[in-house]
Amino acid sequence: MYSIVSNEEKLNQLQNNCSMPEVLSDEKVFKRLRADVECLNEAYGADRDLQADLGGFVVVIWGGRSEVQNEVEKVLTHHKLHPDEYEYMDKIILPERDDITVTFRLFLCSSDYAVEIVTIEEVGE
Predict the structure, then answer these.
(1) pLDDT at 29 over 80
(2) What is the pTM of this model?
(3) Which of 4, 37, 54, 87 has the highest local Cβ count within 10 Å?
(4) Count of other CB atoms within 10 angstroms of residue 21
(5) How far apart are CA 31 and CA 40, in angstroms?
(6) Comparing 15-24, 74-83, 85-94, which segment has the lowest mean pLDDT?
(7) 108: domain range?
(8) Which branch of life, at top level (predicted)?
């Protein structure tokens, strides 16, 4: 499953609708997501049109390994990106959930458009 998060409202909807609420309720994960969304909103506006305006968005993808990899590939293909051409990658390992890995990867599509792919992957799947 996935959710496109472009503003605070979408982030709150994700927190309420994600099938992995314990991950999104983790303070470190949620603070990071919020900071990334706020950064885009401050620079490009919270009500920007994702198809027409500059800025970009965060896409959160969660599930088993094969499901997550499939969705990531779709996002990368849509934006003509390559899996190993991200600007940075951070991983968060939850101490109480060693079966889940949360990874943040920032991809630059152009000088003023970025896609951050956040994966919440069940390692045992």
Answers:
(1) yes
(2) 0.90
(3) 37
(4) 12
(5) 14
(6) 15-24
(7) 2-122
(8) Bacteria
